[in-house]
């Protein structure tokens, strides 16, 4: 695929699924985009669309789309007008990409958006967790994840912010791999817990990528969350007080969420800017211990 002309305008649409709910995600995403523009010198323009609150969706005149996390159920919204508009955009993006060789559109899905995508295209089962998962957690790569270009610069496992009541389990591997994608990350293996390990990241095809965790999160936003009394109590209840204080101490560690924030979305933006397919379809070996 021919690279985009780097002296042309690079346009990014941010799909806001927070529905007016107070969050740190939008600030973090905007900061990453601004820093990317400064570092590359590209003529970058971005616009935020209030998908859930106002039913706003962008047209196809953008190079990259970043769809946020958000509160509430990714299942109970079925049939709502904003969701239908959102899914129409997803279909339009996929149809566009299937019918062009150059000028493909790139899509990054975070948490709630990731769950909606999996539900809509029937690529996994979206279920409610028994308890909220919140904190700075290790994320474990699969065999394909260790070859993922967007993870270049990360170790296995790497650290990320997790904040969710829902999860994607039982991925449709045949359907995912039919488009050249795969499951890239999963939850920590806990043999003593008889629960399914959820999908933490997935490449859907050469242009669509999603994470269950929050790769945009920074230390400032996470500290605000962790200092909220309800959040603090939940983390201590689930993981213990020692783990809670450990999370606080590690927020600014350069090899944890600071690193994750500096790698994944910037790598996505680089790929979208260049208009290149840096992803290689892998030959899957079911005998490999890291293969799903």
Give a verbal description of the structure.
Helix content is 34%, strand content 23%. Strands 2-1-3-4-9-8-7-5-6 form a nine-stranded mixed sheet, sandwiched between helices. It is an alpha/beta fold and 292 residues long. The protein has helices at residues 25-40, 51-54, 81-98, 112-120, 173-177, 219-226, 229-239, 241-250, 257-274; strands spanning 10-16, 44-50, 64-67, 106-110, 125-141, 158-169, 182-186, 199-203, 208-211. It has one domain (10-217, 261-274): Class I glutamine amidotransferase (GATase) domain (Rossmann fold), CATH 3.40.50.880.
SS elements, strand count: 9
Question: And the CATH topology?
Answer: Rossmann fold
CATH architecture classification: 3-Layer(aba) Sandwich
User: Could you give a short account of the major beta sheet?
Assistant: 9 strands, mixed
Helix and strand pattern: EHEHEHEHEEHEEEHHHH
How far is the first residue's CA from the last residue's CA?
Answer: 30 Å
Structural class: alpha/beta
Q: Compute the CA-based radius of gyration.
A: 18 Å
Largest sheet strand order: 2-1-3-4-9-8-7-5-6
Low-confidence stretches: 283-289
Average pLDDT metric: 88
Short summary:
With 292 residues, the chain is of the alpha/beta class. The protein is 34% helix and 23% strand. It has a 9-stranded mixed β-sheet, sandwiched between helices.
């Amino acid at each position: 695929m021919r690279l985009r002309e780097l002296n042309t305008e690079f346009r990014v649409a941010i799909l806001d699924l927070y529905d007016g709910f107070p969050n740190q995600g939008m600030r973090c995403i905007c900061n990453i985009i601004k820093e990317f523009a400064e570092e590359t010198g590209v003529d970058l323009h971005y616009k935020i669309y209030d998908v859930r609150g106002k039913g706003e969706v962008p047209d196809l005149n953008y190079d990259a789309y970043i769809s946020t996390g958000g509160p509430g159920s990714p299942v109970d919204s079925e049939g709502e007008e904003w969701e239908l508009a959102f899914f129409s955009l997803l279909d339009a993006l996929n149809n566009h990409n299937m019918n062009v060789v150059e000028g493909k559109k790139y899509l990054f899905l975070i948490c709630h958006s990731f769950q909606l995508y999996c539900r809509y295209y029937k690529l996994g089962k979206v279920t409610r967790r028994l308890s909220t998962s919140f904190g700075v957690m290790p994320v474990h790569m699969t065999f394909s994840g260790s070859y993922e270009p967007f993870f270049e610069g990360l170790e296995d496992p790497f650290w990320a912010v997790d904040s969710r009541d829902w999860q994607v389990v039982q991925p449709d591997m045949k359907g995912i791999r039919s488009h050249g994608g795969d499951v890239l990350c999963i939850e920590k293996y806990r043999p003593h817990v008889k629960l399914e390990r959820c999908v933490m990241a997935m490449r859907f095809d050469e242009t669509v990528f999603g994470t269950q965790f929050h790769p945009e999160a920074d230390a400032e936003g996470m500290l605000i969350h962790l200092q909220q009394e309800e959040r603090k109590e939940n983390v201590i209840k689930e993981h213990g007080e020692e783990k809670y204080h450990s999370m606080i101490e590690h927020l600014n560690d350069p090899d944890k969420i600071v690193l994750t924030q500096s790698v994944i979305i910037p790598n996505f933006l680089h790929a979208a800017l260049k208009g290149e397919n840096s992803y290689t379809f892998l030959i899957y070996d079911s005998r490999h211990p890291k293969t799903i």
